[in-house]
Design brief:
mainly alpha; about 0% strand
Length: about 110
């Protein structure tokens, strides 16, 4: 009889230990899941900040390049206008000379 009672107590203790282990396991899994979610959120935040930083750097580089191109464009445009002005003046002079020489050539 005592042996049967001891077996029942042992089975009850085993069942209690099994339930405690399952609960502890679920608790540990949940804790690790929460840690993982926090780490993932932290990584996402880091990635977002890094992307913003890289985008800002790229924008600065693009702005510098655009500024250089605008300066080069302005220099080229000024040179073209100057060249056009000189050619126009030269053409006008040559036409005037031609007009002045025309009556003499007849």
């Amino acid at each position: 009889m005592k042996l049967i009672e001891d077996i029942k107590k042992a089975e009850e203790q085993a069942e209690k230990l099994k339930n405690d282990a399952e609960e502890k396991g679920r608790s540990l899994i949940e804790q690790e899941r929460e840690k993982g979610e926090k780490q993932l959120a932290s990584l996402n935040e880091f990635r977002k900040k890094l992307m913003e930083k890289k985008i800002a750097e790229a924008k600065r580089d693009a702005d510098k390049e655009i500024k250089k191109l605008e300066q080069e464009y302005n220099r080229t445009l000024a040179a073209m206008k100057d060249k056009n002005k000189k050619k126009k003046a030269k053409s006008i002079k040559e036409v005037r000379d031609l007009i002045l020489k025309w009556p003499l050539s007849q």
